[in-house]
Amino acid sequence: MTSRDYLWATMCVVLSMPRVGFPCEDIEMFDAWVREPPPLVTVAAGYFTLKNNGSEPATIERIESACCAEVAMHKVLGNGDQRRMTPIPELVVRPGKIASFTPGNAHLMLIAPSQPLQHGQSVELRFICSDGTSLRTGFDVVYGQ
User: Fold this and answer.
1) Banded pLDDT at 145 (limits 50, 70, 90)
2) CB 125 within 8 A of CB 64
3) How far apart are CA 112 and CA 70, in angstroms?
4) To the nearest whole percent, how much of the chain has pLDDT over 70?
């Protein structure tokens, strides 16, 4: 067996092994809600709290939803009176830790909803983790929080 054959065989074994740990399955999500946007506004803000109950870090790479064209994670940075939003490319939550997306802080941007988001509705968002697993969560649309 040549070194190339050995490398190929090792890669095949490693790639065929089952994944160990499923971080999205270890995530507990609560307080998930979307603020109802004013009429004709094409973006809405979403908030939630999650806890990683697993023993490994959970990395959320992206969020998808049929309710809108795009879902993006943002955080608000500020010095004094100057505040600006900046994208969060991925969210890493360490084992046993909590991440909170709250008004005036980190939040989701639900961009270009396919239909108006109104109080009393619920929209489903799919959080996709780096290991390929996902977590589906319903977000209640609420007025004026």
Assistant:
1) low
2) yes
3) 7
4) 84
- Tens of pLDDT, residue by residue over 3-35, are 544 434 444 433 444 444 457 889 999 999 999
pTM exceeds cut of 0.85 = no
What is the second-level CATH architecture of the domain 21-142?
A: Sandwich (2.60)
Residue with tokens 């997306």: 101
Distance (Å) of CA 59 to CA 39, 87, 92, 140: 34, 15, 4, 24
Alpha-carbon span 64 to 31, nearest angstrom: 18
pLDDT tens for each residue of 31-47: 999 999 998 999 999 99
Closest CA to 34 of 123, 106, 128: 123
Do residues 128 and 60 make contact, with C-beta atoms less than 8 angstroms apart?
Answer: yes
Instruction: Spell out the alpha helix ranges (H) of the chain.
Output: 3-16
C-alpha distances out from residue 103 to 33, 106, 136, 143, Å: 11, 7, 22, 14
Q: How far is CA 85 from the centre of its chain?
A: 17
Classify 12 in phi/psi space as left (phi over 0), alpha (psi -120 to 50) or beta.
alpha
Domain boundaries, the chain: 21-142
